[in-house]
Amino acid sequence: MAILHRITALLGSARWLSPLLFLFAWEAGSRSGLIPERTLAAPSKVLSTLLGMAVSGELVDNLWVSFLRIAIGLAIGVTIGVALALVAGLSRQGEVAVDPLMQINRTIPTLALTPLFIVWFGIGETPKIALIAFASIFPVYLNLYSGIRGVDLRLLEGARSFGLSRAEQIFHVILPGALPSLLVGLRYSLSVSILVLVVAEQINASAGLGYLINNARDFMRTDIIVVCLMIYAVLGLAADALVRAVESRALVWRPSIVSQ
Amino acid sequence: MDARSTGYSRVAPPQFQTAQLQKAQPVVRLRDFTRRFGDNTIISGLDLDIAPGEFVTLLGRSGSGKTTLLRTLAGLDPTLGQDVTVPASRAVVFQDARLLPWKKVWRNVALGLRDGDVRARAEGALREVGLGHRLDAWPLTLSGGEAQRVALARALVREPSLLLLDEPFAALDALTRLRMHELVLSLWTRHRPAVMMVTHDVDEAIALADRIVLLDEGRIVTQERIEAPRGERSHVARGLRSRLLSALGGHVAESPSPAEIIALHAGGFA
Fold first, then answer.
1. In chain B, which residues have their Cβ closer than 8 Å to the Cβ of A157?
2. Angstroms from A253 CA to nearest CA on chain B
3. The domain that contains A156 carries what CATH number?
4. What do you get for the CA distance between the two ends of chain B, in Å?
5. In this complex, is the C-beta atom of B143 within 8 Å of any C-beta atom belonging to chain A?
6. Which of B133, B159, B185 is a domain's end point?
7. pLDDT tens column, B43-95
8. Closest partner CB to A161 (pick from B76, B103, B138)
9. What angle do helix axes B144-156 and B118-128 make, rounded to 10 degrees?
């Protein structure tokens, strides 16, 4: 009885059950010939391809290339975004100088810049990194800027009443107060950078995940395409987990809204 | 001393105390102070002296200019060329505690302190308000009363010569408020800063103050000096209360409650 009870309890909250059933259906469809391989490879085939690519080092090498593009692009973009947001957020003149330009630029869809960047930077690594950098500036800028401006004025006044200098007010009140917004911006930047990576890597790449996908398309290797799609999904999840980890460290002072 | 305040004094002052107060230079001195926002005159032609160690409560209706006056004394508003003297060492406790939620309690108290063992000083101040066990707590986990005690500790750790309290207990429940009164009085007796407390609660003012200043439409309407020791004020409270309330333009309906509140303060801070 107890075992039966435990099984029903387990199934009752089993969120993994429906994806698993989906995989089984997919596999059965492929095995029975209902889904031809050139449309979509079977999960088992995808898994063996994944293992094969991992063992041969093909996957790791290309993933590393893509990872570097994201890392460098993000580092540049986030740095610029943070710097501009500090300038615009902390000074009236800075706001007048920076904010209108940023508001105009952010309306440009980043991917529409691809042709221009190719003309400027050629087809090497530079346009890919530049696209990622450009796209990741805005989420960070917009969120940090509004975070700085949204800092509780009463707290600022309290700090002022204790004789804190402007620099101390920025360090102790404004920046910590804007940190949650910065982290939201960072999360957006990460997901945007992965999105841009997918497109940027289609520009005449000779390595990277996009290159793998392009190649696989030419040979109609749906298994490799699915593997790459999985990798993109995992990258997105990993990026989110990274920001969550940073958040739980940096925002420990927040009482958890959802009780454990 | 401000001549007017002695004029309104009802109870004969003990001689030595008045002499002491008169000898010392006032820590706060305002002459013909006026504050406008656009065409709106908030405070006009105000004279105010506060002696070192004096406990003044500022009473008035909403919009009477209480908070504006307090902000001026706190140095939060500009005083452009007016005759305003306030001490350099002053501290404010606001109605909302205004603790930085991202700093632990003791760091909030230590905010802006530069010399000496900052942690030890913050710790000492927090022990004094009875929060020695919550040094490393996050402000958002404190109750309203605890947060306000931290705010008091944060103000007192600076050893201010002027302590400004802006309706600090308005948001607390009645019992917590009475405990806070006791605490404020005991801290005041120990550290002896001049205190200016803004309140709209007549009983609170009577229970705590050396002098009550009543503000209406930006002018001092009346001042009352209370010489009876705290805790033995029930006999003056009734008369004071009705005078203050009628000066405020309120209807005076005597109930036994003010005497009870004052009785709760008996025993300790005389």
1. 76, 98
2. 5
3. 1.10.3720.10
4. 23
5. no
6. B159
7. 888 888 898 989 999 988 887 888 888 888 888 888 877 888 888 888 999 98
8. B76
9. 130
